Amino acid sequence: MKRKMNLLLIIGLVGTPIAGTQFGIDYGRAIWGETQIWWTPQQLALPLEQTSNQFQILLDNEPLANHLTRNSLTALGAEGLAYFVTPEMVRVRLNNWPQVQAGMLHMAVYSALALGVSLTCLIVGALEFFRHAPAPRQRASELPTLRSSRRRSGG
Fold it and tell me: What pTM value is reported for the model?
């Protein structure tokens, strides 16, 4: 008895491990990925005013930028002398992990879609494969020959 594999079963058998592996890699990197390597490099730190759309630091219920423009903040230098903190002195390093993670999860959606399609093909193909009983094999001696299958017409 021999069963014939259908196209859906073949697609499912090939696609499921490939799409499943890709989904596992994409999702794993997004969930358990390295979160501390995505900071803005120190040499490229941004001025405070360029980051106002992402966060705001309040000092005594007033934005830090207002204090800096009024020169109301002072600091002590290494030699112990006080100086005013200016907006040019303040730089911000951002952690870009949320944006990177969103991109990784976006890719995981596509690999999950491919995995779903592959699993559907695998299930439908397997159901089709096992639904039909296999045709029994015939021995060569049992196969009808061309001569014996011809009808001889009388006449």
Answer: 0.66
Residue 84's beta-bridge partner residues?
Answer: 74
In a domain, 14, yes or no: yes
Q: How many domains does the chain have?
A: 2
Tell me the C-alpha distance between 78 and 105, whole Å. 46
Are 88 and 44 part of one and the same domain? yes
Most confident of 32-36, 56-60, 83-87, 107-111: 107-111
Which parts of the chain fold into alpha helices (H)? Answer: 7-32, 64-70, 97-131, 146-149
Give the contacts of 46 (CB within 8 A, at least 6 positions apart): 40, 91, 92, 93, 94
CB atoms within 10 A of CB 76: 9
Q: Hey, how many other C-beta atoms are within 10 angstroms of the C-beta on 127?
A: 12
Q: Is the pLDDT of residue 152 over 90?
A: no
At residue 106, does pLDDT exceed 90? yes
